[in-house]
Amino acid sequence: MSSLQNKIAIVLGASKGIGLGIAQIFAAKGAKVIIASRDNDSLEKAKKYIFQKTALQVDTFLADITDEESIKNLIEFTMNKFGRIDILAQNAGIFPSTPLFEMTPQDWDLVLDTNLKGTFLSVAACIPIMRKQNYGRIVVTSSITGVRTGNPGLAHYAASKAGINGFIKTAAIELAPYNITINSVEPGNILTESLNTLGSDYIKAQERAIPLGCLGTPEDIGYAAAYLASDEARYVTGQSIVVDGGQTLPESHYDIPHRQ
Ligand code: NAP
């Protein structure tokens, strides 16, 4: 028996990259998964990909995390189809790079509205249902950036991810009486289509900075999220798991031994 057997799980931002990895692992562990994001074609591609990997079907739903109404529709769809929501994995996020001296209030708002306010909106929408059930597992994709490290061009992004880690600590206390846990995963550098656009020089430089010698995969994040979403993690709340191949450990790059 798998620990996510028959759990109803929404994965937001699951049409590609890390969210797709989370949805794939959740499905493989027996959850009934609803994948959501803004683009229908990518969602259909993601659904096919999960079927190829697991021989399991997932549901798709178009949702924009910055739009409260859209999130409500996703929740309504899930409740009408399954009658409960056991797991919310909020992974939707954007990371456009803009130097601070060029950053406009609009740049700032777009990133904060998506990554941080979107997290609040999706969590808030699930709370009444999870409270009634007296059960819930919420897992948010944060980042090492902003929480453990800085990254030029990503001041708005760093603030949004540090905000997520702050948010879950208080949310965890308020949700605990209802047997709802909320935790986050902090990925390091995970090889997704979006990260690939940063180019091979960036990727090679990151690899040199990672003690385990390679970038992570979306599935690496999926396994950590699956643990936090499981019954076995019932006593873990308000916490964050770093999944970064050891990238945030060395005090300097001289401390990283060369791989044989
Ligand atoms: P990605 O490949 O660009 O995927 C982002 C996902 O979020 C897509 O499914 C996208 O679908 C969805 N999304 C974006 N804006 C949305 C919105 N307003 N409403 C609903 N869905 C939205 O990115 P990724 O690299 O997998 O990153 C996923 C998450 O991990 C992000 O939160 C990111 O900050 C975090 N992270 C990534 C890394 C990394 O190395 N890749 C490291 C640390 C943290 P649509 O565009 O079709 O809506």
If you had to describe this structure to a student in words, what would you say it looks like?
By secondary structure, the protein is an alpha/beta fold. The protein has one domain: NAD(P)-binding Rossmann-like Domain (Rossmann fold, 3-Layer(aba) Sandwich). 45% of the residues lie in helices and 14% in strands. It is built from 8 helices and 7 strands; from the N terminus they run E-H-E-H-E-H-E-H-E-H-E-H-H-H-E. A 7-stranded parallel β-sheet has the order 3-2-1-4-5-6-7, sandwiched between helices. Helix 1 runs parallel beside helix 2, helix 1 crosses helix 8 and helix 3 runs parallel beside helix 4. The longest helix is centred in the middle third of the chain and has 29 residues. The radius of gyration is 18 Å and the shape is globular. Bound molecules: NADP nicotinamide-adenine-dinucleotide phosphate. NADP nicotinamide-adenine-dinucleotide phosphate (NAP) binds next to helix 1 and helix 6.
- The CATH class, by name, is Alpha Beta
The main pleated sheet reads as: 7 strands, parallel
CATH architecture: 3-Layer(aba) Sandwich
* Overall pLDDT: 96
Give a count of the beta strands, DSSP E runs of length 2 or more.
7
Number of domains: 1
Structural class: alpha/beta
Strand content: 5-15%
Distance between the termini: 39 Å
Helix-strand sequence: EHEHEHEHEHEHHHE
Low-pLDDT residue spans: none
**Percentage of residues in helical conformation:** 40-55%
**Global morphology:** globular
CATH superfamily: NAD(P)-binding Rossmann-like Domain
Q: Walk across the major sheet and give the strand order.
A: 3-2-1-4-5-6-7
Gyration radius, to the nearest Å? 18 Å
**Small-molecule binders:** NADP nicotinamide-adenine-dinucleotide phosphate
